Amino acid sequence: MTYQTPLSTSDRFEIFEQLNLHQRYIDNDASLASAQTYITLYWPEAEFSVKDIRENVFRGVEGLKQLYDYAHSVFPLHLMRHALGTFVIDGGDNLAQVEWNWIVTWKAEKQGVVSTGTYTDRFEKRDGVWKCLSRASNVDPNWPADLFQPWVDQQETTFKAS
Length: 162
What we know:
Elements (H helix, E strand, L loop, with lengths): L8 H18 L5 H8 L2 E10 L3 E5 H15 L5 E13 L2 E12 L6 E14 L2 E11 L5 H9 L1 H4 L4
Parallel strand pairs: 1-6
Antiparallel strand pairs: 1-2, 3-4, 4-5, 5-6
Helix pairs in contact: 1-2, 2-3
């Protein structure tokens, strides 16, 4: 696709910073304040789809809050750390497409990689601000689904809203 105005270096850096903040904010605690901080990375009508051992789509502010709460109450995120892998940012005319790899590792009690995958994002710049409009998370096919299944099986009893 050809754009009238290609992304500037500054635009690319601002989007890159958003990717880093996503990984940092998802590792915050399970509080309402942390959930609200995480949601600021997205436009109000944003959509986030997750494909791992389940397929879910979270829409809008309430959906993103549910995604954050789900991740923090169903999985032991306090024992994990998210990191940004390689990425490609393309676009122009206040729109950007980003493909990037994510890595989740243990930070306590265990060693090694928990899971890896890819995010495919669409960003939009409004009034000089870049935010995510849509994000799709696809876990890599070699991930340890058996590790996550017990947590998913208990989600009815462990899910808590912030």
